[in-house]
Amino acid sequence: MTVEELARLGQQVLWAAFLISFAFGALVQRTGFCTMGAVSDVVAMGDSTRLRQWGLAAATAMLGFAAFSAAGWLVTPQTLYASNRWLWLSALAGGALFGFGMVLASGCVSKSLVRAGAGNLKSLVVVIVTGIAAFATLKGITAVLRVSTVDRVGLEFAGNADLGGLLARTSGLSPSAAALLAGGLIGAGLLLWALSSPEARRPINLAAGFGVGLLVLAMWWTTGRLGHLAEHPQTLEEVWLATNSTRAEGLSFVAPTGYVLDWLMFFSDASKRLTVGIVSVAGVLCGSAAMALARRDFRWEGFGGTSDLGHHLTGAVLMGVGGVTALGCSIGQGVTGLSTLSLTSIVAVAAMIGGAVAAVKYQVWRVERS
Predict the structure, then answer these.
(1) Residue among 7, 19, 10, 26 at smallest CA distance from 218
(2) Which domain holds residue 80?
(3) Segment 192-203, tens digit of pLDDT
């Protein structure tokens, strides 16, 4: 492969990532898919419809990733979530912070991007502050705190810390067979639960769940298959093009918001290049804006007062710090990470739900007190 062909392939990966995230933004804007809303609906109203949307998305991604693994296209050790250390405390603490923060901020990072694209200036502020907090937790002051505290705690495994890998090492099954079995069983169970409610089987809810899950799989295919080179022509190393981690990456939005700010502020630095994460943020904004304009839903919105501003700023900081500490957001861990059956992802998602439940109850307490 020549240098020109390598550059063209990198551009194809970036364009594909942009189009996938554009579709994600448009879909979420149209269907109202929202993890924070799902938890809030259950706690406040006992309505599990949106939680089943999320379950359907996670099941779709899980079943698809299991099929990818069985076909040899992409396996968990090749992804961003690959590690032989189970960082359970980072996932627990970060997930809880993120879950609490997304309720205070009126939505997770992906939902904030969608709302910002539709004219919500509160969400735009949330995205910017989340990006600052995320980058600080990647490389700044809170990164030092993260590395010196929760990241020190973990369990070492002989192989990758995921359910498929554990099954393979304990049962004697091949890694691909174990991944297919584990992903198939858990994904099928989640799928059955998600579709067990008549309300969840309405077209709009099916479109939300299946749509998000399929778009997560499309991003996995883009970075893990299209952008994969078994041997880079210059370095002779295995590489996944246009990713920040140099491994296969899926849809995720906390760290990428930080990378967007870094790319914008240091644009003239030749070492700062576009990546899948950066173009994904732009794609969601553009897709949401296009859908909102097409449906005449675009409208400017601002903060209602200082209390509203304070809660959104606090939520944004918690999401930025928590999302990086937990290695992902409610999409990055809640759908993308879960599809790999990563043990860290499982703990992070449980902690996010717990944090969100606590935040909803806190808000109810504030309303009752006032």
Answers:
(1) 19
(2) 3-369
(3) 999 999 999 999
How many Cβ atoms sit within 10 Å of the Cβ of residue 295?
12
Cβ burial, residue 84 (10 Å; 0-12/13-18/19+): middle
Q: What is the DSSP string of 168-206?
A: HHHH---HHHHHHHHHHHHHHHHHHHHTSSTGGGSHHHH
Tokens (6 digits) for 157 = 């495994």
Sign of CA dihedral 115, 25, 11, 320: positive
Taking the C-alpha atoms of residue 253 and residue 257, their distance in angstroms, rounded to an integer, is: 6
Tell me the per-residue pLDDT of 274-330, one tens digit each, with 9 for 90 and over: 999 999 999 999 999 999 999 999 999 999 899 999 999 999 999 999 999 999 999
Q: How far apart are CA 37 and CA 184, in angstroms?
A: 28
Judged against a pLDDT cut of 90, whether residue 117 lies above it is answered with yes
Domain total in the chain: 1
Q: Which of 122, 85, 128, 90 is nearest to 105 (CA)?
A: 122
Asked if 232 and 65 count as a contact pair (C-beta separation under 8 A), the reply is no
Q: Full-prediction pTM beyond 0.70?
A: yes
Closest CA to 137 of 127, 122, 148: 148
> Beta 228-229 vs 155-156: how paired, if at all?
unpaired
Q: Is 78's pLDDT higher than 90?
A: yes
* 215-269: pLDDT as tens digits: 999 999 999 999 999 888 878 889 999 999 989 999 999 999 999 999 999 999 9
